[in-house]
Automatic annotation (TrEMBL):
MF annotations from Gene Ontology: DNA-binding transcription factor activity; nucleotide binding; RNA binding
Keyword list, A-Z: Cytoplasm, RNA-binding, Transcription, Transcription antitermination, Transcription regulation, Transcription termination
Cellular component terms per the entry's GO annotation: cytosol
Keyword Ligase: no
Organism: Paramuribaculum intestinale
Protein name as catalogued: Transcription termination/antitermination protein NusA
Record domain Transcription factor NusA first KH: where: 207-284
Domain NusA-like second KH: 289-351
Quaternary structure note: Monomer. Binds directly to the core enzyme of the DNA-dependent RNA polymerase and to nascent RNA.
Family, as annotated: Belongs to the NusA family.
InterPro entries in the cross-refs: DNA_repair_Rad51/TF_NusA_a-hlx (IPR010995), KH_dom-like_a/b (IPR015946), KH_NusA_2nd (IPR058582), KH_sf_prok-type (IPR009019), NA-bd_OB-fold (IPR012340), NusA_N_sf (IPR036555), TF_NusA (IPR010213), TF_NusA_bacterial (IPR030842)
Gene3D superfamilies in the cross-refs: 3.30.300.20, Nucleic acid-binding proteins, NusA, N-terminal domain
Listed Pfam families: KH_NusA_1st, KH_NusA_2nd, NusA_N
Compartments reported by the entry: Cytoplasm
C-alpha cells in the first residue's frame, strides 16, 4: 500500500515539468533520466547496472537493476550481485551462476526524502535548460523586431515582458528622446544584445538602432518584405532625423515612392513610431559622387571632388545652398556623411573664379585648425572668401574673438600684399 500512496507524488513531479515551453521532448526525457540516475547513483553507489525507462506523457518511470547471480554466501556488493537462492525466489526459478538477474525497483519505496531530492535536482536542471533555451532563442533574434508590454519603468531603463513573459530591458540610452511609457503599454523595439553571464540571460532591446528603422520599413512596405526593394544604407540621429537609401530590383517599381506611400501613408506610421523623426528616403546608387549629391538633398550641389582612398569629398555649392547642405545644427551634412561613409566638406562656390586664391588648409601652420574648420563650416574655403568679408562680419558670423580675427586677417593679407585692406573696418593697430 505504501507504494501506491507515494506514487501520486512522483506523477506530480513529472506533471510540473510536462508543459515547459522552449524545451523539446527528447531533451526533457534526457534531463529526467539524468536526474533519476544522479539520485539513484547516490543511493546505490553506482548507476552502471541500472536501466531507467521514462514515460513523461503518463508521468511514470520504471527502474530495473541488473545483478550478477553468484553462489550463496559469496555476495560482496548487494548493489551489483545477488545470491542464487534469492534470484530464484525473485521470480527467476531458472537462474544460474553467472547469469544476469533483472529486478524492478520502485523509486517511491525510498520515501519522501528521495522524491524531494529528485524534485530539487529536476528543478535545478530545468531552470538551467530554460535559461539556455531563452538565450538561444533571442540570440537568433538579434537585430529583429520584438514587442513587449511595459511592466515597470525606472529612471535608467524600462522592463518589458513579451508574450511568453520573457524579460526585455530597454535602457534609457536605447530609447528615443521623447519616449514615455505607461505600465501596460505595448512597445516595439529590436533585440540589440543578448548575453548569458553566469547562465543568467540578459536581453537588451533598442529603439535607437538603425536596425529598428530597417525593421519598421520592412513591416510597413510590402515590397521590402518581399525582396523587391532593398535597404542599402541607413543613418539616424534618433528623435531628430534619418536618411535611408533604397534600391529597386524591378525597374517598374519606384523605390522612394513605394517607401513613402500614397500621400505619405506608409512613412507616416514609421514617423509616429519614431516620435516624429524626420525621414529622408533617397535612391541608392553605386556612383559615389551621385550618391553624395543625393544624400545632401535638399541642397543642390554644383560640383564635387572625391578622394576615394581617403574617403573624403569636397562639395561646392552656391551660397544660398550652403545652409541647406549643412542643415539645422549640422544634421543634414552629418547624416549624409554617415549614410555615404565619406567625410564631406562643404564649400561656397564663388561667382568669379580667382585662380590666385589659396585654400585655407594651406595656412594650418599659422592658423589654429579649429579656426579653419569654423570658417569652412560657414562655406569659406579660401583666403579670398574670408577677405571678402569685413572684420566685423567675421567676428559676428564665426563667433570668434576679436584678437583671433585680427591674427587671421593679418596672416591671410600677408599672402596678398598688393590686396588693399577691404571691408568696412580696418584692424586696429597693434
Amino acid at each position: 500500500m505504501a507504494k501506491k500512496e507515494e506514487t501520486p507524488n512522483l506523477v506530480a513531479c513529472f506533471a510540473e515539468f510536462k508543459e515547459l515551453k522552449n524545451i523539446d521532448k527528447i531533451t526533457m526525457i534526457n534531463v529526467l533520466e539524468e536526474s533519476f540516475r544522479n539520485v539513484l547513483a547516490k543511493m546505490f553507489g553506482t548507476d552502471v547496472n541500472l536501466d531507467v525507462i521514462l514515460n513523461p506523457d503518463k508521468g511514470d518511470v520504471q527502474i530495473f537493476q541488473n545483478l550478477e547471480v553468484v553462489e550463496d554466501g559469496t555476495v560482496t556488493d548487494p548493489n551489483l550481485q545477488i545470491g542464487l537462492t534469492d534470484a530464484k525466489a525473485d521470480q527467476d526459478p531458472d537462474a544460474g551462476i553467472g547469469d544476469e538477474h533483472t529486478r524492478e525497483i520502485f523509486f517511491a519505496d525510498f520515501g519522501r526524502r528521495a522524491i524531494l531530492t529528485l524534485r530539487q535536482t529536476l528543478q535545478s536542471k530545468i531552470l538551467d535548460l530554460q535559461k539556455e533555451a531563452i538565450y538561444d532563442k533571442f540570440k537568433e533574434l538579434e537585430g529583429e523586431l520584438v514587442t513587449g508590454e511595459v511592466y515597470q519603468t525606472w529612471s535608467r531603463e524600462t522592463l518589458l515582458l513579451d508574450d511568453d513573459k520573457n524579460e526585455l530591458l530597454l535602457p534609457k540610452s536605447e530609447s528615443i528622446p521623447g519616449d514615455f511609457f505607461r505600465k501596460g503599454e505595448t512597445v516595439r523595439a529590436v533585440v540589440s544584445n543578448v548575453d548569458n553571464k553566469n547562465n543568467n540571460p540578459k536581453i537588451t532591446v533598442s529603439r535607437t538602432s538603425e536596425n529598428f528603422l530597417r525593421r519598421l520599413f520592412e513591416l510597413e512596405v510590402p515590397e521590402i518584405h518581399d525582396g523587391l526593394i532593398s535597404i542599402r544604407a541607413v543613418a539616424r540621429i534618433p528623435g531628430e532625423r534619418a536618411k535611408i537609401a533604397v534600391e529597386s530590383y524591378d525597374e517598374r517599381i519606384d523605390p522612394v515612392g513605394a517607401c513613402v506611400g500614397v500621400k505619405g501613408s506608409r512613412i507616416h506610421g514609421i514617423v509616429r513610431e519614431l516620435r516624429n523623426e524626420n525621414i529622408d528616403v533617397i535612391n541608392y546608387t553605386s556612383n559615389p559622387s551621385l550618391f553624395i549629391q543625393r544624400a545632401l538633398s535638399p541642397a543642390r550641389v554644383s560640383t564635387i571632388r572625391i578622394d576615394e582612398e581617403e574617403k573624403k569629398a569636397e562639395v561646392f555649392l552656391r551660397p544660398e545652398e550652403v545652409s541647406l547642405a549643412i542643415g539645422k545644427q549640422g544634421l543634414n551634412i552629418k547624416l549624409a556623411s554617415m549614410l555615404t561613409g565619406y567625410v564631406i566638406d562643404v564649400y561656397r562656390e564663388s561667382d568669379e573664379v580667382q585662380e590666385e586664391d589659396i585654400y585655407l588648409d594651406e595656412f594650418k601652420d599659422e592658423i589654429d585648425p579649429w579656426v579653419i574648420e569654423t570658417l569652412k563650416n560657414m562655406g569659406l574655403v579660401t583666403a579670398k572668401n574670408v577677405l571678402a568679408l569685413s572684420r566685423q562680419e567675421i567676428i559676428d558670423k564665426a563667433d570668434l574673438e576679436e584678437s583671433t580675427v585680427d591674427q587671421l586677417l593679418q596672416v591671410l593679407r600677408a599672402e596678398f600684399e598688393d590686396l588693399p585692406e577691404g571691408g568696412d573696418e580696418a584692424a586696429p593697430e597693434a
